[in-house]
Design goal:
By secondary structure, the chain is mainly beta. Among the domains are: 1-108 and 124-131, no CATH class; 420-548. The chain has a 44-stranded parallel β-sheet that branches. The radius of gyration is 35 Å and the shape is elongated.
Length: 548
């Protein structure tokens, strides 16, 4: 700073030149085979070059008014090449060997390049417009590459490469007031690219330790914000794409190997956070279109796991967490408004959780703990439906909930089952269904309800090769079925009409019950204890024709 002030004072005090042609060039060379070329056209242009060492090279070309270039080269084989048109400012410090800095400025811009105790680094700065600022710092580094391109007004870019080698950092800014910052510290072969097109966008990349990691951020619009962190690890990839305004995205990768994150946002005020902790070959995909959608995902350890979140609409929210395990899939798709989905997968292998919601105010949750080859799926349409699936342990079990209507509720709980199935389908309003299965094998439970205000529940406990089915059509019907401590039991309940009631219980082996009720207000209770029992109930309103 003292040197800059001294040069300015020299220009103001000197009377050796006419006012119309006052330019100032200072060159100080110490060493062998250093080269400096300065060309100035205009007035009040300043060039100051200090070279100390061997075969350093500098070229400064200034055209305009009050362009300023300040250079210090200490070492061997360093190169500085600056072109300034109009009124620009450039300063560079090169302390090391075979470093190169290229500065091309048109307008009224500022560039700062520091290559400190560095070797074979390259820094490129291209600026078009006014009040753009570029800062490139390459410290204690080898063969680092930094490139900043700015076109517009008041953009700011900063690249810091510290104690690394073979890294690449690229920033491209088009517009007004954009900000980009890339930090690569103690890294090797890392890559970071930020592209901003619009106004007041913010992007920050932090890569620390690690090798062959990659980050790409693309922003198109107004006041979008993106943050990407990579700490350690190898060959991890993070991609963020934003179109619109006020969108916010964060990706964080700690350690791990060959993990990947992709976040794509289109619209207004969407938020997304994706974190991967250690693990390998894990993948997270987030796609948001609309307004005020929110997605939060975490993959902690594990391998080959997949998270895929797709949101279209407004105010939808999704949360997905995967802990350890391998080859687990969590898929969430939401269309509409204010839908909420949550998936939690812990340990286990080859488990799949799938949530699809279309409408508004729907809620869905799936929990899978341990186990393998388990599948859970929830489909909900229209308004205010609520669904929950819990799968604990077990192998090759399946749970399905499908609801269409308003304010329906369904829940399935499965624990330590093998090859069993539980399914709920409800169409209408205010229906309620519940299924739980404990320690079963190749057992099936199904509830189908068409109408309004119906309720049904099935419980199967230590029951193998058994089947329970409840079908209700109408309003305000109620049915339950329980099967326990047996094999090869079968229970079928069918109710058509309103306010019918049925309950069945089977304890033992090879029992069969069939209940059919049609009409209004019928009631049936069947209890079977033992083996080989059979019961059939048929009830109708007067004047109705019995079903064949």
């Amino acid at each position: 700073m003292k040197k800059i002030l001294f040069v300015l004072a020299t220009i103001l005090l000197t009377g050796a030149y006419s006012f119309a042609q006052i330019n100032q060039s200072n060159i100080n060379q110490i060493g062998i085979d250093n080269s400096a070329v300065v060309q100035q056209v205009g007035i009040f242009n300043i060039s100051d070059i200090y070279q100390d060492g061997f075969t350093n090279d500098a070229t400064v070309d200034q055209l305009g008014i009050m362009n300023m270039s300040f250079l210090e080269q200490i070492g061997e084989g360093n190169g500085y090449y600056a072109t300034q048109v109009e009124s620009n400012f450039s300063t560079a410090l090169q302390l090391g060997w075979f470093n190169n800095a290229y500065v091309d400025q048109v307008g009224m811009n500022s560039s700062y390049v520091t290559q400190f105790i560095a070797e074979s680094n390259d820094a490129y700065v291209t600026q078009r417009g006014y009040f753009n600022t570029s800062v490139i710092d390459q410290w204690f580094s080898y063969k680092e590459y930094a490139n900043v391109f700015q076109w517009g007004l008041g953009n700011e870019a900063k690249v810091t490469q510290y104690e690394g080698m073979y890294d690449e950092a690229l920033i491209s800014q088009w517009g007004i007031g954009n900000y980009a910052n890339i930090l690569q510290e103690r890294t090797s072969d890392n890559y970071a690219f930020v592209s901003q097109n619009g106004d007041l966008n913010v992007a920050m990349v932090d890569q620390w330790l690690g090798s062959n990691n990659s980050v790409e951020i693309g922003q198109n619009g107004f006041m979008n914000t993106a943050y990407a962190d990579q700490f350690g690890g190898e060959s991890n990839v993070a991609l963020i794409g934003q179109q619109g305004k006020y969108n916010m995205a964060y990706t964080g990768q700690l350690g791990g190997w060959l993990n990947g994150i992709s976040v794509n946002q289109k619209g207004k005020a969407n938020t997304a956070s994706a974190v991967q902790l250690y693990g390998m070959l894990n993948t997270t995909l987030i796609d948001q279109q609309g307004r005020h959608n929110n997605a939060v995902t975490t993959q902690d350890g594990g391998w080959g796991n997949l998270i895929d979140v797709d949101q279209k609409g407004r105010w939808n929210a999704a949360s997905v967490y995967q802990y350890e395990g391998g080859l687990n899939w969590a898929l969430v798709s939401q269309q509409g408004r204010r839908n909420t989905a949550g998936v939690y997968q812990e340990n286990g292998y080859w488990n799949t959780a799938d949530v699809y919601q279309h409408g508004k105010w729907n809620e869905a949750s799936i929990y899978q703990f341990d186990g393998s080859f388990n599948t859970a799926e929830i489909d909900q349409y229209k308004k205010g439906n609520d669904a929950l699936i819990n799968q604990v342990g077990g192998e090759s079990t399946t749970a399905y909930i499908g609801q269409e209507g308003r304010y329906n509720s369904a829940e399935i709980y499965q624990e330590n089952n093998i090859g069993s199935y539980a399914g709920i389908a409800q169409v209408g309003d205010l229906n309620d269904a519940y299924i739980e299965q404990f320690d079963t094998e190749l057992t099936a439970a199904g509830i189908i309800q068409l109408g309004n205000g119906n309720a049904a529940a099935i419980g199967q406990y230590n029951s193998d090769y058994s089947m329970a089915l409840i079908e209700q059509t109408g309003d305000s019907n109620y049915a339950t079925s329980v099967q326990a401590d047996g094999v090869m039991n079968s229970a079928t309940t069918t109710q058509l009409g309103d306010y019918n009631y049925s309950t069945t219980m089977q304890v033992g082996n090879n029992n069969v019950v069939d209940v059919y009720q049609a009409g209004y207000g019928h009631a049936s209770v069947v209890t079977q204890y033992g083996n080989g029992n059979s019961a059939s109930v048929s009830q109708y309103d007067a004047g109705m024709t019995p079903a064949p």
